[in-house]
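User: Sequence in, structure out. Go.
Assistant: Echoing your sequence, followed by the structure tokens.
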Amino acid sequence: MDQFTINLLFVGASFALYIGIAIWARAGSTSEFYAAGRGIHPVTNGMATAADWMSAASFISMAGLIAFTGYDNSTFLMGWTGGYVLLALLLAPYLRKFGKYTVSEFIGDRFYSPTARLVAVISLLVASLTYVIGQMTGVGVAFGRFLEVSNTAGLLIGACVVFAYAVFGGMKGVTYTQVAQYVVLIMAYTIPAVFISLQLTGNPIPGLGLFGTEVESGLPLLQKLDQIVAELGFNEYTAHHGDTFNMVLFTLSLMIGTAGLPHVIMRFFTVPRVADARWSAGWALVFIALLYLTAPAVGAMARLNITEQFWPNGTSGEAVSVETIESDPAYDWMATWQQTGLLGWEDKNGDGRIQYYNDASPAMQERAATEGWEGNELTNFNRDILVLANPEIANLPGWVIGLVAAGGLAAALSTAAGLLLAISSAVSHDLIKGQLNPSISEKGELLSARIAMAVAIAVATYLGLNPPGFAAQTVALAFGLAAASIFPALMMGIFTKVNNKGAVAGMLAGLIVTLIYIFLHKGWFFIPDTNSFTDADPLLGTIKSTSFGAVGAMINFAVAFTVSKMTAPIPQEIEELVESVRVPRGAGAAQDH
């Protein structure tokens, strides 16, 4: 059986499973559509939360970014994991106790202001739409390779699948679908990692193999990797070469952005009790850890495999020949990925070999002049392909490659569905029912929610065709926007007595300043070519656009507290509400409103 047929079987079977679950668990009421009837078991919810959380950025893009940068990109791991702990400890139980359906509804009621609710909806839509672009980018990459179609065609197919199970299933259908998607994605991520770890180190546990000895050289794997990338003019894999301040700020931005993401927070509204929200968070951390403890090993081992394939004899200069690429089955993966446009090479100097090195390195420039090289001839290697291509690079069995195809799509689709549900809930429940038509019937609200999700899918698909960077980089922008707008409002709503005017002013200040900084830093105000994603010089010190969310959050807090001090205090009933939410009686049943 050829590889395309195997891929089709794995992907088709997984899609049939997802759509079947959605039909079985179809939402019949707004309670089931928004919160799955508040009847989800903590373990089930923990697994669904993990799938919701581990998006295309985690599955497809994160290991690629770590692989090509090394230690400095461990910020993604630290920020996302730390942020989830922050969410689990400081926000989730209290928000569940409040008993609402959406984040915007909590903000509107806590700050006793329809305006605050509207600003929260706007912030949610901006952050969620930015986030979902990254997921649709991942869908296009995965489909483009494994179904051998263009990125655009792959993205359109993925959008149709999400439409089929998210629009009709709502939160109830999405929850059970995400459980299945978690099982698929975690198997797809860990099984190839076990194979590759065994190949390189003899250790079946990737996390331990990362710190083990490479079988072929007898050197510690990380030492071998440092040595080979340094020989080619790249930075040592395990060394820190970036700006420490920006690295810390970026990690903080990811952390608080994580805690402000509405599609994850919504998962804690689906359990029966506050205690179940805490247990859900605990189980989700266990399920997330299975992938996040494996990702650094996947990145390092993939980088070693790729580097050795292109430069098999190290410093001897014996780069792989074009003839070998065309005739050796070990390089078949290059031909298939080349068809997607995400991988490319060129024999610039006509010597019949493909030199792979850092042509920006002074040492390699000097050597290139001696050897007659014309520059790095691996002209395109999109980092988002690394995890998906890893089994092929390591020459693993066809069924493993098919499983990875299904896993990558499961990761992207599970988070996309959660985000689209958060978007549709904000539009139908917070905007239409909460602002425009409070008397709308439950049937009408459910219809508007489904229409809103269909529109959101169409918008996300369109934006996914022109994403502002790699999947993980696009997602990082979304985290910054959530960090600057939603997270401070939630924290102040639970733990302070900030009033409505302060909350509105803070959210607007944080969101607007962060958006302006991102647009200026990316050059989108001045560069007509919307596909130009190169950062301009930082406008404030060394702070990049992906790190600015933490600064935006500080501005949000400062403006909110200042305006609140200058205006009337919160009403007595709101003060009592805040106190009641924080009372540690969370082990009992939560009050539903």
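User: And one key feature?
Assistant: Residues 166 and 417 are 6 Å apart (CA to CA).
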